[in-house]
């Protein structure tokens, strides 16, 4: 039984129905054990292309491939029975045309079992979002700071201040009108996120967008304290698992070196006693 009270896995329509109600809880996952850990606590689990930076040590999400997303998506799907699984479309897999987006989104869903895809972009992706949703592919949009566009944005900066405020409002309206079932707002000032949340009929899921969004998402390795290369301002570390893991590894190394591990209880006798 899940903590959210349903017995079947959530679908995009369930997330859509949460608009304006209890906050939608989302985390990323990239592996089966983490998917199992977060499943009953989350409404939506995202197989984010952040996997490239978090698990593969890439400098950005630009090097993430369809094959990486499929492999991690398959692993996550094995650990979920409650939360909706959304999978990121990697850079270069959807921007060229709606047909290219459909080809890759349908492959991601067919080969992983994801219930929806996420893609980055606002008004300029509206045609693609409409094309996909009309053909059976639920889409979560992602606007504000879109990490796949880091090179044109000039860094991982807060979006929607000054002149770009009106553009972000337009983006939110465009993706909602195109049929997205939800929209991620990343690194957007709180007041603007609140305005967008009040304006669109689909749930907003914030990451660095304040508490007024319809839901929140974090990268699971960030909030567990497992990824410590850097910490964005919007991340709260709810655990320090990286430190704990390193201490455990140091204990193991010390015990191997002083031969206190393995002890008798971890070893096998030559003869089994009758
Ligand atoms: O890739 C990812 O993990 C994401 C979330 C941070 C929203 O897009």
From TrEMBL:
Cofactor note text: Binds 1 Mg(2+) ion per subunit.
CDD domains, alphabetized: KPHMT-like
Keywords attached to this entry: Cytoplasm, Magnesium, Metal-binding, Pantothenate biosynthesis, Transferase
Record family assignment: Belongs to the PanB family.
Quaternary structure and interacting proteins, as annotated: Homodecamer; pentamer of dimers.
PANTHER family: 3-METHYL-2-OXOBUTANOATE HYDROXYMETHYLTRANSFERASE (PTHR20881)
Protein known as: 3-methyl-2-oxobutanoate hydroxymethyltransferase
Record lineage: Bacteria, Pseudomonadati, Pseudomonadota, Alphaproteobacteria, Rhodobacterales
Gene expressing this chain: panB
């Amino acid at each position: 039984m899940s903590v959210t009270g349903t017995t079947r896995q959530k679908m995009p329509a369930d997330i859509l129905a949460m608009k304006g109600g209890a906050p939608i809880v989302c985390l990323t996952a990239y592996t089966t054990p983490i998917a199992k850990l977060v499943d009953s606590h989350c409404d939506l689990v995202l197989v984010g292309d952040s996997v490239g930076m978090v698990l593969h040590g890439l400098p950005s999400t630009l090097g993430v491939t369809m094959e990486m997303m499929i492999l991690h998506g398959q692993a996550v799907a094995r650990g979920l029975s409650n939360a909706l699984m959304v999978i990121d479309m990697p850079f270069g897999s959807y921007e060229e045309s709606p047909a290219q987006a459909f080809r890759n989104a349908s492959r991601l869903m067919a080969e992983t079992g994801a219930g929806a895809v996420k893609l980055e972009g606002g008004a300029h992706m509206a045609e693609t979002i409409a094309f996909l949703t009309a053909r059976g592919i639920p889409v979560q949009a992602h606007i504000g700071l879109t990490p796949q566009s880091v090179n044109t944005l000039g860094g991982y900066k807060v979006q929607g201040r000054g002149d770009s405020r009106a553009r972000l409002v337009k983006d939110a309206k465009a993706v909602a009108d195109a049929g997205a079932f939800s929209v991620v707002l990343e690194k957007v000032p709180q007041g603007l996120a609140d305005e967008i949340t009040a304006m669109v009929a689909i749930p907003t899921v914030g990451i660095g967008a304040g508490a007024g969004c319809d839901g929140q998402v974090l990268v699971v390795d960030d909030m567990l304290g497992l990824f410590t290369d850097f910490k964005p301002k919007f991340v709260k570390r709810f655990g320090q698992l990286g430190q704990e893991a390193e201490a455990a590894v140091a204990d193991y190394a010390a015990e191997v070196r002083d031969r206190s591990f393995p002890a008798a209880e971890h070893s096998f006798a030559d003869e089994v006693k009758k």
